[in-house]
Amino acid sequence: MTTTTPLSTAPPLPDLEQRVSLADTLSQTFTLAWRATVKMRRNLEVMFDVTIQPLIFTAMFAYIFGGAISGDVSSYLPLIIPGLIGQTVLTACVATGVQLRTDLDSGVFDRFKVLPIARIAPLAGPMVADMLRYFIAACLTFGVGILIGYRPGGGFVGVAGSIMLAVVAGWSLAWIFTFFGLVGRNAQGVQGISLLVMFPLTFLSNAFVPTETMPRPLEAFANVNPVSLVITALRDLANHGEVTGAVGWALVGCAVVVAIFAPLSVRRFKKL
Amino acid sequence: MNTPHPSAPAVRAEGLVKTFGEHRAVDGVDLEVHRGEVFGVLGPNGAGKTTMLSMLATLIPIDGGDAQVFGHDVRREPHLVRQLLGVTGQFASVDENLTATENLWLFARLQGLGRAEARSRGAHLLEQFDLTEAASKPISAFSGGMRRRLDLAASLITRPPLIFLDEPTTGLDPRTRGQMWTTIRELVLEGSTVLLTTQYLDEADQLADRIAVIDHGLKVAEGTADELKSSVGRSTLQLQLADAADLPAAAELAEQLLGEAPVLSPESRRVNIPLQRTDQSIDVLVALRDRGVSIESVTVQKPSLDEVFLALTGHDTGGPDSTDDPGDATGTDASPSDQPTQMEVSR
């Protein structure tokens, strides 16, 4: 084609924004969260870890450890149910990172990267959508607990409060696994590192046993483990319906995790 | 502040470098794309075309050199550059989990269009790209051509002044390729600047005002399609005769007329006659008829991409892993894979 260059018809350049505003960042995050929920709806198998797992684990842990730790199953339930919520939500967080890795390898993520959107939005969007998964996990765990005889002392309000806290905590702790999702080379690698991190975080906490029974160094870690802080707060809310200092500490713990891992993740994402 | 250089070219790159370990994928390329033109980057697989485009699109870091888009530095002002760009290609595709409508809605919303505006812009683009019927089908049910059209539609939502097309028709059948070309020409009429990469000389020829030829990360030539082709060589008149006995006579006649001996392939009754100008083919054909030489088929062949490459780089286009040394290039036969045939007559 040898037509002359139609310089004069070139439209003027658009006005440019120097940076993405906070309002736009939020709107982009929620748009990407919408995309993630559509994906979830079309791939329902991603829901297994927040549906089947709570059903099986709750009954299993209660009946296996109940007698040994608390003398009988029903007095173990107030301890184990909030603990299991912490554990299930953490497992769901691992999936958040693994799915991010899979998503990163698809062409659409490259399009997100060349769009003039906030760098945090493609990371935070799916995480917002995953709050739905944490919500389902928490509700089901409570449901199974109540079926096998758990009677939360905090009543409906206490349970609702602890579900909300579990969802917020899930979103915060998921930043750890989002970071691993960005560092790992492939989904299997991400799964591997994430499980290595998830198990100590879960078992070196007060999720299943009182921390006083652990050796001192482990107890020291377990007491500052954000997962322990969250689980203590979940117990206070569900069993006593009280917004105690533990709830404050849980939120502080979550905030610290976000403050460390969100900037690390965004920095890493920019370099990918 | 927004447009520091009102007359800055759409793209200017100086000494662009990208290394992957030891391998210099892009090795010091200079590029200048004027506003409103279609600029073609031509090269074989693995030449560094996509890598170069990815750097200019802010997708991967620039390892060396400088690049500006409408005067904005790609490295320092990526957010401004992204607002001026629409990118379509091997990278930057659409979301396979969403329908066509959902994809366009997603990208429109992400780029700040309101809900109603996003919906109407999406519907308009689907209609423009003839995808309305497939609007709510899963992308996995799309043909290659539909998929490319949707990719392109998704990058045009904000009517960006500069569009990158990375191998827009690779893998498409000829009819779909033609439709894609029409679409690209329409974009240019609207005033967009287009930077496209391609493996096909034909495509660069059809679309691009100017072409840069890239090989092993280096720019080996730049110019209009005609300039490139004339720098490379001439057309060839390929004749297949009805009777092999006529071959010597035909060869002698051609040499008398054009002053150069043609190449003969007696086993297939073929004569390949190099031409200075395509017009000369007529002189040869008329002379042959006067002499009573019967011809079975006639083809005038322009230099193929392989020949352009051979001439410019000293080796053939090869595959992505072609690390053959230049002296190895013995395959001078025109490959039939590209079809730069200008005229084909059969008796």
UniProtKB/TrEMBL annotation, chain A:
Instruction: Tell me the PROSITE patterns matching this sequence.
Output: ABC_TM2
Q: Which residue ranges does UniProt annotate as crossing the membrane?
A: 46-69, 75-98, 132-150, 156-183, 190-209, 246-266
Q: Where is the ABC transmembrane type-2 domain?
A: 45-272
Which top-rank group of organisms is this from?
Answer: Bacteria
Q: Name one GO biological process term.
A: response to antibiotic
Q: What is this protein called?
A: Transport permease protein
Q: Which UniProt keywords apply?
A: Antibiotic resistance, Cell membrane, Membrane, Transmembrane, Transmembrane helix, Transport
The family classification in the record reads: Belongs to the ABC-2 integral membrane protein family.
- Where, subcellularly, is it found? Cell membrane; Membrane
Instruction: Provide the membrane topology annotation.
Output: Multi-pass membrane protein
Q: Which GO terms describe its cellular component?
A: ATP-binding cassette (ABC) transporter complex
Query: Which GO terms of the molecular function aspect are on file?
Result: ABC-type transporter activity
Tagged with keyword Membrane: yes
From TrEMBL, chain B:
Q: Which NCBIfam families match?
A: drrA
Q: Which domain of life is it from?
A: Bacteria
User: Which molecular-function annotation in GO is an example for this chain?
Assistant: ATP binding
Membrane protein topology class: Peripheral membrane protein
List GO terms (cellular component aspect). plasma membrane
Compartmental location: Cell membrane
Where mainly located? membrane
Q: Which family does it belong to?
A: Belongs to the ABC transporter superfamily. Drug exporter-1 (DrugE1) (TC 3.A.1.105) family.
Region of interest (Disordered), residue spans:
312-347
Q: What is this protein called?
A: Daunorubicin/doxorubicin resistance ABC transporter ATP-binding protein DrrA
Database matches in Pfam families: ABC_tran, DrrA1-3_C
Please verify whether the record's keywords include S-adenosyl-L-methionine: no
GO biological process, alphabetically ordered: daunorubicin transport; doxorubicin transport; response to antibiotic
Q: Which SUPFAM superfamilies match?
A: P-loop containing nucleoside triphosphate hydrolases (SSF52540)
Q: Where is the composition biased (Polar residues)?
A: 336-347
